[in-house]
Write a structure and sequence with these properties.
- It is a single chain.
- By secondary structure, this protein is an alpha/beta fold.
- It has a single domain, classed as Vaccinia Virus protein VP39 (Rossmann fold, 3-Layer(aba) Sandwich), CATH 3.40.50.
- The protein has six helices and seven strands.
- The chain has a seven-stranded mixed β-sheet, with helices on both faces.
- The chain starts with 6 loop residues before the first helix and ends with a strand.
- Bound molecules: S-adenosylmethionine (SAM).
- S-adenosylmethionine binds next to helix 6.
- One of its GO terms (molecular function) is tRNA (guanine(46)-N7)-methyltransferase activity.
Length: about 210
């Protein structure tokens, strides 16, 4: 549901401003302040309706999770999921991920997740892909040396493009799987899109990439 004017969403966000941060840029270099304890920071870009970030926070209490999603009406769903999970190690940010360096200081992030990112298949839209060079430049800076990016997608074209983009950028591909669900990994937390594609029997591609400074 897309609603242009959403005062009810603003109210809902305000009531839950300990989960959905009103001024995320003010936490730069000091993200532990957004959580009850200092733990490794994991960041998901394009969280959608939040199933992954809520599920990861519940399954991995040893880390703190931040989910960024730019569409407000979608973020409402993410806030509901994180609230329902009753976790204290997940917060949400309703912003576009284009200015991550204004939100995180150098090497502040331990792990970054890109789940079912929009593929933008037309070459003229390549700059919008979350694995385009300008995004990788930001990831490289905010991730620790040796920090990781995990990417999952159903889109073969985006997957191949991203593998090339990561390696041209000097990042190290640690692991590639062309059928994640065949591995039956117990700790794989599924996203909404992942469930939808898996139900249709489509393979899920995943890569894990290491950041080298
Ligand atoms: N990750 C979710 C999943 O797997 O179910 C949602 C996938 S959906 C295809 C991609 C999401 O990324 C959309 O909700 C979109 O608004 C968000 N998104 C795309 N580009 C973004 C950006 N630059 N900053 C923040 N969110 C973005």
């Amino acid at each position: 549901m897309r609603i242009r004017n959403k005062p009810w969403a603003d109210e809902f966000f305000e009531e839950n401003n300990h989960i959905i941060l009103q001024d995320p840029f003010s936490y730069k270099g000091n993200w532990k302040e957004a959580f009850t304890d200092k733990k490794p920071l994991h960041l998901e870009i394009g969280s959608g309706k939040g199933q992954f970030v809520a599920g990861m926070a519940a399954n991995f209490p040893e880390a703190n999770f931040i989910g960024i999603e730019r569409v407000k009406s979608v973020m409402v769903g993410a806030l509901k999921k994180v609230k329902a999970a009753e976790v204290s190690n997940a917060v949400l940010v309703n912003e576009d991920a284009k200015d991550l360096r204004d939100m995180f200081s150098e090497s502040e992030i331990d792990h970054l997740y890109l789940n079912f990112s929009d593929p933008w298949p037309k070459t003229k839209h390549a700059k919008r892909r979350l694995t385009y060079e300008s995004f990788l430049e930001q990831y490289k800076e905010i991730l620790k040396d040796g920090g990781k990016i995990t990417m999952k997608t159903d889109n073969r074209g985006l997957f191949e493009y991203s593998l090339a983009s990561f390696s041209q950028f000097g990042m190290v591909i640690e692991d590639v799987t062309l059928d994640l669900h065949e591995l039956e990994e117990e700790k794989n937390v599924m996203t909404e899109y992942e469930e939808k594609f898996a139900e249709k029997g489509q393979p899920i591609y995943r890569c894990i990439v290491i950041n080298i400074k």
